[in-house]
Design goal:
By secondary structure, the chain is mainly beta. The chain has a domain of 54 residues: SH3 type barrels (Roll), CATH 2.30.30. It contains 1 helix and 6 strands, in the order E-E-H-E-E-E-E. Strands 1, 2, 3, 4, 5 and 6 form a 6-stranded antiparallel beta sheet that branches. The longest helix has 6 residues.
């Protein structure tokens, strides 16, 4: 849809087996965003103008830009060379 905030939001369903926090918040350019930085979250709804409703693990809900969330890695980061 075009810009204009038609009010339509796409509801994103929960995965099987309970609640999964597949994303994390990646922006920290002001004090509010710094408090949310790197916290696990899940997307509850996607709205117009590239926004989404996210819920953090403690139950806090925020409307944020979809550019501000990243998918959590399924593999742990490699810290060193394993021989």
């Amino acid at each position: 849809m075009g810009a204009g905030g038609g009010g339509n939001a796409e509801i994103v369903g929960e995965g099987e087996g309970g609640v999964m926090f597949l994303f994390y918040y990646a922006w920290k350019n002001n004090s509010k965003r710094t408090a949310m930085y790197r916290r696990a979250c899940r997307v509850l709804a996607r709205g117009s103008l590239n926004s989404c409703l996210v819920e953090f693990e403690n139950g806090q809900r925020e409307i944020v830009s979809r550019n501000a969330i990243r998918i959590r890695s399924k593999k742990p980061p490699v810290r060193g060379l394993l021989l």
